[in-house]
Amino acid sequence: PAFIRTRENRQEFGHIAKSGKMYRRAIANLLADVPDRSKIYRLTSRLNQVKKYDLTSSRGQRKVSVGIASPEGKEALKFFDFNKKATLDAVLKSNYNLDTATNEIIINDFIPQLNLGIPQGATHVELSAAIMNFDFATGQGEVTISNVENLMIDSTATTINLNFSSTPSAAGETYYFMKVAYFQEFNGEQYPLLNGAFNALQIIEII
Questions:
Q1: How many CB atoms lie under 10 A from the CB of residue 152?
Q2: Which terminus in the chain has less CB density within 10 A, N or C?
Q3: Rounded-to-integer distance, Cα 79 and Cα 30, Å
Q4: Burial class (CB in 10 A: 0-12, 13-18, 19+), 50
């Protein structure tokens, strides 16, 4: 009896760790070039916050799937950066407009040289987005990726329009992601800059 709280905490931690693993697997393609090992324990920590908004389950039985259904749970996970070394706010220095009704993201008058935190050696940048429906109760997710805009890093102004040819239909909450990836051109070919060390990926909205 003296260790009942320890057992309850251990049980909930195991559930959170499993939830984080399933979530990362669902977006494995997005994470492939975002090499930050700390994302595993940082996501686990954030999901622990989400779990606390399960206000109906007993001790030891609180679930991420219940917490994320609340507005507070969504806010706890929103704006999570998968690369601590390259957060979206530091990389993308421009306002964007996300329309969840039309599933469009628009960045007006985007000038790479002015509106990016540019790492040394980068010659090109790619901007893209993704939508995922994910159900923490089942661990099932469905991801749709937008068009990819590849731009030379110069002073040319461009309006970026990221949209989707289709949208996920699976159960669960809907997660919107924004991604910025850097490249270096060599002999006419573009190569990921330092294996993606400066690439940013953030959850920008959850509904």
A1: 13
A2: N
A3: 16
A4: buried
| CB neighbour list of residue 42: distance below 8 Å, 6 or more residues apart | 80, 84
Q: Return the SS3 of 152.
A: strand
CB burial of residue 117 (10 Å; 0-12, 13-18, 19+): middle
Task: Single out the residue of 163, 191, 178 nearest to residue 82, CA to CA.
Answer: 178
Q: Decide: pTM greater than 0.90.
A: yes
At 12 the pLDDT is: 87
pLDDT at 7: 77
Looking at residue 2, its pLDDT comes to 66
CA neighbor of 79 nearest in space, from 52, 59, 49, 111: 49
Q: pLDDT tens digits, residue range 5-24?
A: 777 778 888 999 999 999 99
CB 155 within 8 A of CB 200: no
Strand partners, 185: 190
In the chain, which stretches have pLDDT less than 50? Answer: none
33 — phi, psi (to 5°)? -115, 30
